[in-house]
């Protein structure tokens, strides 16, 4: 029987790296050469990595937690790395000149980069605010917000929006989730294709161990992580110190409960509401 191409030994795993500054506490250790891993790396926005992993163009990747939940038959968690918040997240925002409770029938510009943030926004608006707006997927959600439209913005653009938009218009979705549920919200997980995990268990285990080691290095070398973040996006040192302290990178028991709660709320709506 001919070997499938990715069963060949010697081919590094194809790794999808989140193209946001929020992964600096994990990825800086690799960039600095403090921790090694044998991968071919692709960096992109979450929705691209989501699609590439399920299409088999990547073997492992940091992806939207919502996408993982919707594809658990094909994907498994890679170790216990995640990106979560327990309270304000800072970088997943609804920016709206209209109060959220008055968004019934409004059109919200949602970034094409997001799956978790989109599903979370729809969940919060439906269950907490009891409104059903329409969602318009756009490439430039930050531009839409600056033009005065209600908009969902994530990642580095959301950090920009915090400084560029009126504070009264900024609604932090991590904060809203925790206020409602008392639980953390998990935005991203590291996931592996189940077929790859079956065929290449040793390499997958080694990569999971390297990620955990890189995360520990990032905790112990916070100044280096902040310098790397500043080199990528020149925000104030204090902003990053605060941001990386608030974000949670371990899928611990409470984060797992938050993820399970979110799955119960939004998976029944699948596939209509799970952004691809
Ligand atoms: C915390 C964040 O969460 C991100 C939000 C994602 C989504 O909405 O699908 C995916 C990955 C995370 O990096 C962020 O945008 O900074």
Automatic annotation (TrEMBL):
Q: What does this protein do?
A: Catalyzes the dehydration of chorismate into 3-[(1-carboxyvinyl)oxy]benzoate, a step in the biosynthesis of menaquinone (MK, vitamin K2).
The UniProt entry's sequence similarity note says: Belongs to the MqnA/MqnD family. MqnA subfamily.
Lyase found in the keyword field:
yes
For molecular function, the Gene Ontology terms on record are:
hydro-lyase activity
Catalysed conversion reaction? chorismate = 3-[(1-carboxyvinyl)-oxy]benzoate + H2O
Keywords of this protein's UniProt record, alphabetized? Lyase, Menaquinone biosynthesis
On whether RNA-binding is a keyword of this UniProt record, the answer is: no
Pathway this chain belongs to: Quinol/quinone metabolism; menaquinone biosynthesis
- InterPro entries noted in UniProt: Menaquinone_biosynth, MqnA
Superkingdom of the organism of origin? Bacteria
The gene name on file is mqnA
Which top-level enzyme class is recorded in the Swiss-Prot or TrEMBL entry?
Answer: lyase
Q: What Enzyme Commission number does this protein have? A: 4.2.1.151
Name under which the protein is recorded: Chorismate dehydratase
One GO biological process from the UniProt record? menaquinone biosynthetic process
